[in-house]
Amino acid sequence: MWIVTPDMSSGERDVTVIHIDSILRAAHLLPVYGSQYPLIPPDFNHALSLDVFNAYYVNKYIDHHANEIAFLSPKIV
Question: What domain of life does the UniProt record list for this protein's source (predicted)?
């Protein structure tokens, strides 16, 4: 799996508005847990996951469509 991290400028996460037509499909992101505090507190609000974690695994094996896009499509850089 690939690891992705948010873009940062001056210590703040970059924010960009994109056109809806540029979205191909949703991504399945799994947070990368730190080694210091590997357990999530029981009262953790999962709706804040994108704001709390600093890196995420992209699961390209979630289904055959994601796998096909990851392996058969030309690389977008």
Answer: Eukaryota
The answer to whether 56 and 3 have CB atoms below 8 angstroms apart is: yes
The three-class DSSP label of residue 57 is strand
Q: How many CB atoms lie within 10 A of CB 18?
A: 7
State the residue for tokens 């709390």: 52
- DSSP 8-state assignment for residue 23: -
Asked if 31 and 51 count as a contact pair (C-beta separation under 8 A), the reply is no
Q: Is the dihedral of CA 72, 74, 76, 77 positive or negative?
A: positive
